[in-house]
Amino acid sequence: MTVVVLGAVFLVLVALLAAATRSFDHVVSPVTLFGLGLFLYVVAIPMEVTLTGNRNLSLRSTIVIPQEVVTQVVPLAFVALIAFVVGYLLIVDRTPFTQPTFSRADIAHAQRALGLCAALSVLVMLVLFGAQLIATRDYTTSYTQRYESPLYAVGLAMMQVLLAMYGFSLARFGRHPFRDAVAFAGLLSMWGLYSNQKTPIVLAGLVALGYLTTRVRKPSALAVGTSVMVMPVLLAVAAISFSTFRGGGVLQLAGRSGYLTTIEPAGPFVSIVDEMLDRGSSAPASGFGESVIQGLVGWVPRAVWSDRPLDIAEQFARTRIPDWQPGEGYGYSPFAEAVHQGGLAGVAAYFLLLGLVVALLRNLLLRRRHDGSALTIVAESFYHVVVLLLLFTLFRGPLQAFVTTFVQYSVALVLALVMTALLPRLLQDSHAVGSDPDPVEVS
User: Can you say whether the dihedral through the CA atoms of 384, 385, 386, 388 is positive or negative?
Assistant: First the structure.
């Protein structure tokens, strides 16, 4: 039961850290999302295995978790959490949070720009990929399309993020925040259920947080800590419900043979099992530091870099899955990637650097949140939607997935910023064209 006790202590530590960072990160902190993701994808599975006695990961084939992995994972997770928090707190701007005061004109300007970008992205996807969007109702077709057509995958990701950014701006700064939060969270959730994707559902939750950020002036330590403590149960039930819905089954919570060991967190955990049993086995073609370096440059499209190496997740899938087909995979845990770099020291260095990067992104995107303009609203929407989304889903894929997804989503940010900058001029020109000319005296 030591594993269960350590797991419970881990969650309490995440709750305490969330309460400690609320003075500058308000209701949701990168530390909170990182800690919850680490708990669900790394810590909770050994806890479940210890409580149920069932050490099987129920995937394409049954994979048994050895007892030594069960006992070693949780202490390493503490190292990952502490390293990330240290890196984050070293450089993050800890200016106390206050509700920003933007002019109504700046808010309307930013919302018009984001709304126009979102509408254009939907229109482009319908024109270019209408048939593919309809076909996403089938799960296999959904992920196969995204794997085989990078342009479709990027366009879909941008459409979803721009819709979420627009919804967040309305929920955070709009005149009718509750109505807009419900509308956009509902729209994204329904699209996620239709298209068999979890990402739109997570985006829906982040839009709802925009409303919560507006309404909660000064969250108490007790409220933040309690929310963190109950969140894993709610997220686990939601994940099981989604997997059941996608599989066409009937939801059953009592009497299950497994919980997290039967749904998405089980996939990336396979790479942790392999790496901890035999260092380097989960990525045989990747030497020390190689996957990290490739992760930083692996976002370059194959159209530009034709012989770009396979990312570590695909390497692992090809090695582990018999008769591998494009789009298939277990996922690959960044925790396993960190272990691959050097065990305990690799975990500490990997997540320390990640904490520094996240703090840097936060500082850059929120640096003018108290005295900014319409551009600031766009940047803040991007931070709360994209950066927090990537942190929440961090443990599904390796560093390359994080970097590649961030680069792709950054295209949406650039488009939104350009639209925000150009929109006043476009509106001014349109008014000039549509206005009556000055009267001219004819002799």
Answer: positive
HSE-CB for 255 with a 13 A CA cutoff = 2
AA letter at 42: V
Under 8 Å between Cβ of 207 and 164: yes
DSSP string, 60-120: SSEEE--HHHHHHHHHHHHHHHHHHHHHHHHH---PPP------HHHHHHHHHHHHHHHHH
Strand-pairing partners, residue 62, are 58
Cα 161 from Cα 381, distance rounded (Å): 10
Amino acid identity at 125: M
β-partners of residue 237 are none
Single pTM value for the model: 0.89
Instruction: Give, for 57, the enclosing helix (H) or strand (E).
Output: strand 56-58
Dump the DSSP string for 107-176. HHHHHHHHHHHHHHHHHHHHHHHHHHHHHTTSHHHHHHHHHH-HHHHHHHHHHHHHHHHHHHHHHHHSSS
- Nearest-CA neighbor of 120 among 158, 171, 169, 167? 158
Helix 312-320 to helix 290-297 angle (10° resolution) is 120
The pLDDT confidence band at residue 319, using thresholds 50, 70 and 90, is confident
Q: How far apart are CA 443 and CA 435, in angstroms?
A: 24
Whether 341 and 76 have beta carbons less than 8 Å apart is answered as: no
- Tokens 């392999």 belong to 274
Of residues 226 and 428, the one with the higher pLDDT is 226
